Amino acid sequence: MKNLVKMAMVIVSGLAINLYLYFMFIEPFLNNDTKGLMKVLKEWQTLNAAFVALLASFIALYTTQYNVRKQKERDFIASKAFLLEALSELSGYLELSAKLLIEAYKRQKDPNDSCKSELGNKLPDLPDKYKVTFRDCIHSGEYEVGEYLSEILRGLQLHNSRMIKTDEEFAPSRTYTKCTLNTSVEILELAKIHVRIGRLYPFARNKDSLDISPIKPDEMINSFSNLYINDVDDLRKVLLEKI
To answer: What is the pLDDT of residues 177-201, one digit of tens each?
Structure first.
């Protein structure tokens, strides 16, 4: 929609300029030679002065917008240079998260486990460094890039909250006998975040444009493998049914 409005404005502006040039210069010259042209310019000098001022303001506006756009491009290049480090940090966090959730899933499925002891895998801390890089890329990048990174940020915040809740479910002080959380759903959402982050690697290396299309089943299956989810007997089947 934004591009259509911009295109319409360009067409209307171009038409107005062409009409002005024709009736102010070409038509008088063709009908009355130089005398006719000078007469029209003299009679309409106020309009011409206003048009020149308007044209100058358009040029100044375009120059300003061009400089701002180029500055944003330079800022994005600088921010993007740190994106690979941020992605590596997040990938490590998601791998640790997967280990904890897989352990939680196995214990929840075990009828002999009351889930009243702490998990063997410690709750990983959500990294901090990536936040600045993501923020800078959102600020200086294209709209689609900003939306994509924002979606990952929202997913990470929700995932971290769920991880804390899952870790708290396995505690000696619990009064009920089994966990109430559906860990398979958490693992599925984890895999989605993992896929989205994986898509950013080629983009961060300047090897490909960012893929913002809906997540494909084969990407999820590949994520299951990279996070060692496939090693759990029935978990892969449960997750495939939810895709």
So the answer is: 555 567 888 999 999 999 999 999 9
